[in-house]
Specification:
The chain is mostly helical. About 75% of the residues lie in helices and about 0% in strands.
Length: about 475
């Protein structure tokens, strides 16, 4: 075929590239180095979100040591305890995911990815400067709002940039890169929390280091394209085509896909209103994932946010508990990388259900053990199960919804985990006081049992399904 003929076919194919055709063209992309670079760049931005989120548990002993907060309180909803700090974090996350998830659907994945991260970094700097429990909780709440928006945006972003055949692995790698921040914050907490460098509480240094490092996001954003599917959904077809051509050219599929000539363009797809998510065909999915998220957060954050404190309750010193937590934290980035080997071989719901069962088993073992080596081993295995569940459901709850409502729908269902985690701070503190570590893991076991039953019975199959096609 002549050069002129090729150009003509390109124009016709591009003219036909509405959201459905763009989805089909994205689906034909191979798992190329270029796509993996985009996933890693997004994930590097997410590192700061994970750092900020996980410092909640690691600086808790330092907050108690400084006298700002206490481990437990006399009343259930005590606002002078660590439970209140955890609750403030997840109250902000709820507001960000439930009420502001629409921002990424309205203004684009790339723009919100950038500004949400900068917003919660600024709030974290202000939090580190507080000298009262009220000011600490207020700025932690505001930082949580930015984190909530960022989480949903990254999930939607990755879902729309990679084909279904590599989506499970993409989320596993995404989680591995982001969770690399956990051993970093764990090490910094282990090193700094017991100290007061230059007369400043160690926990403040941990917060400030993460917030300062996040400025690198201005560099990362220069190398990230907008989602072609989002652009097409908003009538910006020429921009979507330009990005799609770049993706296809970088993966060597450009010419083959452009020879396919489809009918006329489909145009802009009508937008779905907020209320539409609570009617068919979305209602059943929204309800299912709301229930799932309400329960999964107890398993994940009931352990992740309380590791140092749970170890202290088992008679281990603050310094040793932070040291053990640092060792356990290495499971966060390693486990998703191992999970990438089977991420796209099984349906998401079976991976999540298997992870929930492992959380039950290793959690009950952790509650009964005393020997440091065995505690660390169970902590590592429990963390591995949690991170495997995490990558799988982050992919699952975005790919089941169409592009027009993906960020908003995922935000609404994910916000239930924020509500759960918010109250889990108080509930875990209560169970810890009344029933000890065993009571905490009894609570986690019940929550994981609901996760298994709900997904096995009602979870849809998604493996190999293209988006919006």
């Amino acid at each position: 075929m002549s050069a002129v003929g090729i150009d003509t076919t390109l124009d016709l194919a591009d003219a036909a590239s509405g959201p459905s055709e763009i989805s089909r063209r994205l689906e034909r992309l191979p798992a190329s180095p270029h796509l993996w670079r985009l996933v890693i760049l997004l994930s590097l931005g997410g590192c700061f979100e994970i750092y900020d989120l996980f410092l909640t548990g690691y600086i808790a002993p330092g907050l108690g040591r400084s006298g700002l907060l206490s481990t437990t309180t006399d009343s259930f909803f005590g606002f002078s305890g660590i439970g209140a700090f955890i609750a403030a974090t997840f109250a902000g996350l709820f507001v960000g995911t439930f009420f502001l998830g629409f921002l990424a659907d309205r203004f684009g994945r790339r723009l919100i990815f950038t500004w949400a991260l900068l917003a919660y970094s600024a709030a974290s700097v202000l939090m580190a400067c507080q000298t009262t429990s009220g000011g600490l909780l207020l700025w932690r709440f505001i930082a949580g709002i930015g984190i909530g928006v960022e989480i949903i945006t990254i999930d939607a972003y990755i879902t729309e940039l990679v084909p279904s055949g590599m989506r499970g692995r993409a989320f596993a790698v995404n989680q591995a890169v982001m969770f690399a921040a956990v051993p970093v914050v764990a090490f910094l907490a282990w090193w700094l929390v017991p100290l007061s460098p230059y007369g400043i509480d160690g926990w403040r240094w941990v917060v400030l280091i993460g917030a300062t490092a996040s400025m690198v996001i201005w560099i990362l954003r220069l190398y990230l394209p907008e989602s072609p599917l989002w652009l097409a959904r908003h009538g910006r077809t020429s921009e979507a085509i330009a990005i799609l051509r770049t993706l296809e050219g970088a993966t060597g599929t450009h010419a083959a896909s452009e020879r396919v000539v489809i009918g006329r363009a489909t145009g802009i797809v009508p937008k779905a209103a907020f209320a539409d998510l609570f009617r068919a065909p979305y209602l059943s999915l929204v309800v299912l994932f709301m229930i799932f998220n309400l329960c999964q957060a107890f398993g994940f954050y009931g352990f992740a946010n309380w590791v140092p404190t749970l170890l202290v309750e088992k008679g281990i010193t603050v310094t040793k508990s932070l040291q053990y937590s640092f060792i356990v934290a290495f499971a966060y980035p390693i486990a998703p990388l191992l999970a990438a080997s089977f991420a796209d071989r099984f349906e998401r719901k079976w991976i999540i259900a298997g992870s929930a069962l492992a959380i039950i088993l290793f959690g009950l073992m952790f509650s009964q053990l005393i020997a440091p080596a065995l505690l660390i081993l169970c902590g590592v295995l429990l963390t591995a199960a949690n991170t495997t569940m995490s990558y799988a459901y982050h992919a699952y709850q975005t790919e089941v919804f169409p592009t027009a409502v993906r960020a908003r729908a995922a935000g609404i269902v994910y916000s239930m985990s924020r509500v759960s985690a918010m109250f889990s701070g108080f509930i875990v503190a209560f169970m810890l006081r009344e029933s000890g570590v065993t009571g905490v893991f009894g609570l986690i076991t019940a929550a994981m049992a609901v996760v298994i039953v709900a997904l096995v019975a009602f979870g849809p199959n998604v493996r190999g399904r293209p988006l919006d096609a």
